[in-house]
Design a protein that fits this description.
single chain, alpha/beta, Rossmann fold, seven-stranded parallel beta sheet, 8 helices, 15% strand, globular, binds nicotinamide-adenine-dinucleotide
C-alpha cells in the first residue's frame, strides 16, 4: 500500500458504534472493521449479537454489547467495560436514533420526550462517557449521526421532533469539537440523506408517490446505500480527517445543496 494511504487505516483501533444491530449502524461497523478496527457493536436489541457474529463470519473483529442510550448509567457502564477490557477507545459513533412521524399540532408530549431522549440525550451521554476516556488518552474521534432533516425542512413527511434533535446533534458536535480541539479529541457529525434501509423500502412499497417525490428532489436521483454513509463516517473517524473537527459532513446525494 502506498505510504500516504496509511492515514485511512484503522488497524489496531478500538471502535464503539451505537445502534449497531441493523441498517446504517451495521454498515458503519462493517466499514470500520474492514479498515482494521476492532468494533464493539452496541444496541438495545439482542439482534446485535447475531449481527456481530455475521460480521465476524465475514472475517471482521467484532463483539456485541447491550446499551440503552437514553440511560446515562447504561452508557457509562459500557464505557467502563470497554475501557477495562481494551484499555482504550479510539473511535465512537453515536448512531442510535429513531424517527416519529407527526404534525406539530398532533405531536404528543410522550413522543416528543422519547425522540429527544434517544436522539439527543443519547448523543450527549455517549460523547461524555467515551469522550472522557479519549481526553485522558489525549486522542480520539467521535462521530454522531445527524440528518438532512437537521439542516432543512424535508417534505412531504412531518417529524418536527426528529428534525429538532438532528439539528441539535450537529450543533452539539460543533460546540464539543471546539471545546476539545486542543485536547486531541475530534467531534464531527455526518448528515445522511434518504438511505436505502428497510424503513424506506417500506415507504417505497406503501407510498410510491412519496418515494417518487424524494427521488425527484435528490440531485443524484437515487437513495444512498448504507455503505455510502459508513464511508463518510469512516473518513471522519480516521487520521485522514486529522484537521477536521466541529463539522457536519452531508452524505446526502446532493439533497441539502439543491
Ligand atoms: N435511514 C435513513 O434514511 C436516515 C436518514 C438520515 C439519518 N438517519 C439516521 O441514521 C441513524 C441510523 O438509522 P437507520 O435508518 O439505520 O435506523 P434503524 O432503525 O434501522 O436502526 C437504528 C438502531 O438504533 C437502535 N436503537 C434505538 N433506540 C436505541 C436505544 N435507546 N439505545 C440503543 N440503541 C437504540 C435500534 O435498535 C436500531 O438497531 C439514525 O440516527 C437515523 O436517525 C437515517
Amino acid at each position: 500500500m502506498a505510504k500516504n494511504l496509511n492515514i485511512f487505516s484503522l488497524e489496531g483501533r478500538i471502535a464503539v458504534v451505537t445502534g449497531a444491530a441493523r441498517g446504517i449502524g451495521e454498515a458503519i461497523c462493517r466499514q470500520l472493521g474492514e479498515m482494521g478496527a476492532h468494533v464493539v457493536m452496541a444496541d438495545l436489541l439482542d439482534l446485535v449479537d447475531e449481527t456481530a457474529s455475521k460480521l465476524a463470519d465475514e472475517g471482521l473483529s467484532t463483539e456485541g454489547e447491550r446499551i440503552d442510550v437514553t440511560s446515562s448509567q447504561s452508557v457509562q457502564d459500557l464505557a467502563d467495560r470497554v475501557n477495562a477490557k481494551h484499555g482504550r477507545v479510539d473511535i465512537v459513533v453515536a448512531n442510535a436514533g429513531v424517527a416519529y412521524e407527526s404534525s406539530t399540532e398532533d405531536h404528543s408530549d410522550e413522543d416528543w420526550r422519547r425522540v429527544m431522549a434517544i436522539n439527543l440525550d443519547g448523543v450527549f451521554f455517549v460523547a461524555r462517557a467515551f469522550g472522557s476516556i479519549m481526553l485522558d488518552q489525549g486522542k480520539g474521534s467521535i462521530v454522531a449521526i445527524s440528518s438532512i432533516a437537521g439542516v432543512k425542512a424535508v417534505r412531504p413527511e412531518l417529524h418536527i421532533g426528529y428534525d429538532v434533535t438532528k439539528a441539535g446533534v450537529a450543533h452539539f458536535c460543533k460546540v464539543a469539537g471546539v471545546e476539545w480541539a486542543t485536547r486531541g479529541v475530534r467531534v464531527n457529525a455526518v448528515g445522511p440523506g434518504y438511505t436505502n434501509t428497510e424503513m424506506l423500502q417500506k415507504v417505497g412499497l406503501e407510498q410510491p408517490a412519496v418515494m417518487a417525490r424524494w427521488i425527484d428532489d435528490i440531485p443524484m436521483s437515487r437513495l444512498l446505500e448504507p455503505a455510502e454513509i459508513a464511508q463518510a463516517v469512516a473518513f471522519l473517524a480516521s487520521d485522514a480527517a486529522s484537521g477536521i473537527t466541529g463539522q457536519l459532513l452531508m452524505a446526502d446525494a446532493g439533497y441539502s445543496a439543491a
